[in-house]
Design brief:
Layout (H helix, E strand, L loop, with lengths): L1 H18 L2 H39 L19 H9 L2 H32 L5 H10 L9 H10 L6 H26 L2 H9 L4 H12 L1 H16 L3 H6 L8 H6 L9 H31 L6
């Protein structure tokens, strides 16, 4: 009895293989090969993207004498470069200045952009479209073109070589894009919520603060990350409008580490590693809202 069963099983298996549609087998094989190639491309792109960061961190842990060694890994892990840039190059003060300037800029830009975005999306007033297009047209002007006019304006206001003038320049350059993004986000929210708030007797600011703003948290997170990154990494305005080393932000201070004839690469990479840490922390804290803000409007219903 068992012999008959053992003979029947291979027969059924062979019959299943013979009866299988060859086109389905080819399609499944192509699907497997396509997915494997896709994963291979993603792995290669990931390695290419992560390699500069890994090289930077590993170089910062090397001694200066082995900067140009053939090995990527340090023979002896040392944090001397971090101590050098923190104590001798005064990077800690520049880091604190960047925190002040960036946080002040982000707070003001987020506050003004949310208010202006709600007004342009939900409030009717004369000349709304013309004013919005006028503000939006500033996005087409490169920042370097505005460098000399901004310098003359800040000089007339006696704000050259001050962090306040730098903050005002950052607010003016970052506000149009943030306002455009928040207007688009508020436009995706149901208009019935605004009508319901007005029927209940809420003021326009009450509708904005109590109803619409809590729903706009993904959009707020998105403009916060974008503005934080652009302000933190900005170099041209910071190097042009602020000359005092005590008041300078981090990016001009990092550029000062580049020597004319030689560069202390472990010190430079250590300072760069310290400079990207706040950006990574902000993104990790707000990545969920950031992704939700980018995907808003992609799915209907």
């Amino acid at each position: 009895m068992s012999t008959d069963t053992d003979v029947a099983r291979p027969a059924r298996a062979e019959g299943w293989l013979l009866g299988r549609d060859p086109r389905m087998a080819i399609a499944q094989g192509r699907h497997i090969v396509t997915r494997a190639l896709g994963y291979l491309v993603l792995v290669m792109l990931t390695v290419l993207s992560v390699f500069p960061l890994v090289w930077m961190v590993l170089t910062s842990l090397k001694d200066r004498t082995e900067t140009y060694s053939t090995s990527w890994l340090p023979s002896r892990v040392t944090f001397a470069s971090y101590l050098f840039v923190w104590e001798r190059m005064n990077v800690g003060l520049s880091l604190l200045n960047s925190v002040k300037v960036t946080v002040s800029t982000v707070v003001v830009v987020v506050a003004l952009a949310t208010l202006a975005g709600y007004a342009f999306a939900r409030i009717e007033f004369p000349g709304k479209q013309a004013i919005f297009l006028l503000l939006l047209s500033t996005l087409m002007v490169p920042g370097t073109v505005l460098l000399i006019p901004l310098f003359l304006q800040l000089s007339a206001l006696k704000l050259i070589d001050s962090q306040l003038g730098l903050i005002l320049a950052y607010i003016g350059s970052g506000l149009p894009f943030a306002m455009f993004l928040m207007r688009s986000f508020f436009a995706t929210l149901p208009a019935e919520l605004v009508d319901a708030g007005r029927i209940d007797g809420a003021s326009e600011f009450g509708i904005f603060a109590r109803i619409m703003l809590p729903l706009a948290r993904p959009g707020v997170a998105t403009i916060t990350i974008f503005q934080f990154m652009s302000t933190w990494n900005e170099f041209v305005f910071a190097a042009t409008f602020v000359h005092d080393p005590v008041k300078r932000t981090l990016q001009p201070a990092l550029y000062a580490l580049v020597g004319r004839y030689s560069t202390n690469w472990p010190a430079l990479t250590a300072a760069l590693t310290m400079s990207i840490a706040p950006i990574v922390m902000v993104y990790l804290l707000m990545q969920r809202q950031f992704v939700a803000g980018l995907t808003t409007g992609a799915i209907k219903g």
